[in-house]
Design goal:
The protein has 262 residues and is mostly helical. The chain is 79% helix and 0% strand. The chain has twelve helices and no strands. Helix 3 crosses helix 6, helix 7 crosses helix 8 and helix 9 runs antiparallel to helix 12. The protein is globular and about 75 Å long. Belongs to the binding-protein-dependent transport system permease family.
């Protein structure tokens, strides 16, 4: 028993060293922009770059739209499949896993062929249309993670009983979906939202080929042309990711401890 505990702590220590040491090295290197002393010049350079603020804000907006529209697509689909079409679950799960198999470059080239300026729906003819296409692309990439998270949360509740109880009280389908189902699967939605946010903030291929000012192409551009700023950007991105995860955990905990209204 004691040896098992030692091995467990040893495994945890090795894992911590594996993740923390490179992070410390990256942070230390980002402080060496000025020769002979440690400074935050690289961080100041990043934050003062207007392109950083523009691309970061754009990706944040795209992540917000992706999470909202992805949630509105996945939650009703998972609910309807579990309630009315249980035999279709393997088919739906297979479809949602396709973005893991098909490369992103293939997906975006397919979108460009379908929605270019000479197609029946020329989304790439305008900036708003291209942004919409980018949101659809991000939704496709995040679909496996969002669907799995929501489906797992939906397994924890009795969908049939909730629906029958709501219908017996005269509730319509929109009321059932948004006041009964959504609150009960919020933990899954938040998990999917966190993964979606991470995907959108770091995605390069789709944003680059659609020529949109996203954060992923900006990271690649800085990494190819500067020395210390890429390390500072890596630390900033890591901090933002952990901050987002902490906020999601806080919201999820608040959701669990909030009193249920009759």
């Amino acid at each position: 028993m004691k040896s098992t505990r030692i091995l467990a702590w040893l495994a945890i220590a090795i894992g911590a060293i594996y993740f923390i040491v490179p992070l410390i090295g990256t942070f230390e290197f980002s402080l060496r922009m000025r020769r002979g002393e440690y400074t935050f010049d690289a961080y100041q350079s990043v934050f003062s770059d207007i392109q950083f603020r523009t691309t970061f804000g754009f990706s944040m907006l795209m992540a917000l739209f992706t999470i909202i529209f992805g949630m509105l697509l996945v939650v009703p689909t998972a609910y309807w499949v579990r309630l009315r079409l249980p035999r279709m679950r393997p088919v739906i799960e297979f479809i949602t896993l396709l973005p893991l198999v098909i490369p992103a470059i293939v997906i975006v080239f397919g979108y460009l062929r379908l929605y270019n300026s000479s197609s029946f729906l020329p989304l790439t003819n305008s900036t708003s249309g291209t942004n919409m296409l980018l949101v659809f692309s991000y939704m496709t990439l995040s679909l496996p993670y969002m669907y799995r998270a929501v489906d797992t949360a939906m397994r924890m509740i009795d969908v049939g009983t909730l629906t029958e109880a709501a219908e017996s009280l005269g509730a319509k389908w929109p009321t059932i979906l948004f006041r009964c189902i959504f609150p009960n699967v919020m933990s899954g939605v938040l998990s999917g939202a966190f993964i979606t946010f991470a995907i959108v903030m770091g995605e390069f291929t789709m944003a680059s080929l659609l020529n949109r000012p996203a954060f992923g192409p900006y990271l690649q551009l800085v990494g190819a042309n500067k020395a210390y700023e890429p390390s500072a950007l890596a630390i900033i991105a890591f901090a933002i990711t952990w901050l987002s995860m902490g906020l999601l955990q806080l919201v999820s905990r608040f959701q669990k401890t909030a009193p249920v209204k009759a």
